[in-house]
UniProtKB/TrEMBL annotation:
One of its GO terms (molecular function) is glycosyltransferase activity. It comes from Castilleja foliolosa. The lineage of its organism: Eukaryota, Viridiplantae, Streptophyta, Embryophyta, Tracheophyta. Pathway: Glycan metabolism. This is O-fucosyltransferase family protein. It is found in: Membrane. Pfam families: O-FucT (PF10250). GO terms for biological process: fucose metabolic process. One of its GO terms (cellular component) is membrane. Its main location: membrane. Belongs to the glycosyltransferase GT106 family. CDD domains: O-FucT_plant.
Amino acid sequence: MGLKTRTAFGGDRLERLRNGGMVSRSRIKLWMIRATTSILLWTCIVQLTAFSEPWGLLVLKGWPSCFSQKSASVALDVQLSPELPLRVLPPKRVYKNNGYLMVSCNGGLNQMRAAICDMVAIARYLNVTLIVPELDKTSFWNDPSEFKDIFDVDHFITSLRDEVRILKELPPRVKRRVELGIIYTMPPISWSDITYYHNQILPLIQKYKVVHLNKTDARLANNDQPIDIQRLRCRVNFSALKFTPQIEELGRKVIKILRQKGPFIVLHLRYEMDMLAFSGCTHGCNTEEVEELTRMRYAYPWWKEKIIDSDSKRKEGLCPLTPEETAMTLRALDIDQNIQIYVAAGEIYGGERRLSSLTSSYPNFVRKETLLESTDLRYFQNHSSQMAALDYLVSLESDIFVPTYDGNMAKVVEGHRRYLGYKKTILLERRLLVDLIDNYTSGSLTWDEFSTAVKDAHAERMGNPIKRLMIPDRPKEEDYFYANPWECLQPQNDDEPFPLSSSI
């Protein structure tokens, strides 16, 4: 009896041990399944974050960090804060895609900026997909910057999605066609009407699927374009082309430093070595400098004009004002000698020797290099377009903008300041100024006579509302669209039409 009891009791214990072992093995299997599933899930999430496509990012949008309670609270704050509303993107424009347009912009920052605006308008009109433009890396400035290094590329693409489809690169199958040489490359004809692109460029895109326009400066006419095209050019320029957050932040820092000390003028002193060599303007230079500038002009084959009469060109108003002429002009206009003058320019040719007249007349003479620490500009050095972008932002904010030459930056900033409410821009009439300066220095005019004449000549040249000058069959001599995009602006008095511009 006792033996049976022990045997039965031992058998129950053995059964329980067996059942317990099975349960343990089941639990281990379940744990392994859960662990494997978790690993696979997190692998998928990590892979999703590697994609730049918006759908991949949306999967994780709003998820708090698994590693930091602080990160989770920040994410929650961003979602709930009424001060940070979710951005509503414009709806995508749906259209039959006729092909792909690639463009290579040439020139400096503002020449490329205007070209980008033109190319967006052309792509919209042709119903094609635009690939993010390639920027010039072979010009005199040798700037290696890509589009994304200067402009906020994601904002550029999404803000225009209701007008035109823009991609960062060609789709794989189309890219393979390009790699096989199935692409048509050409420079479009300068100052062409939009119908030229419909009649000449669109058939090429439909045939080859991809057309590459390898020069884009001044390729769309200033005038007589459909009003929707003109306004789209403005929308790209004033809204879609935002600089990168790094450039915007540094621009705000410079502006804050200047504002803390009061009002300021931005002087776009276009007196760099390349400008003087290209234009042949050597007034005020010594013999050695004249020879150096001439050698430089001959060293670059794309500067076609080699033999230049500097004196006659200056008298025609085709040279930038020298630093000495600029100082006299500012004084004649009664610009307060205590005001800050921020110089938006590269290295001034002749250095401190040529700047002495300006700095003695206006001691509060500053530039970004003197306002910022060297560490602030470390990542911008040797990137002329990024440095120019910083000057552009400061120029827009200034109380007065004074360009000494009507180059691309002067024109584009002038137009942008008109758009911001006709902010004062003194448009110097160089041909008249050099004549008045020569008469004053020769003793033919007193200072008061000289100053009065300068003020009278510029009373209506302050960036006030006016229509562009149109010259049929001479588009290069017309007023530039981006300097005065009046189709996108409103007169200061809505009851009065724009006055017409006249040649000077």
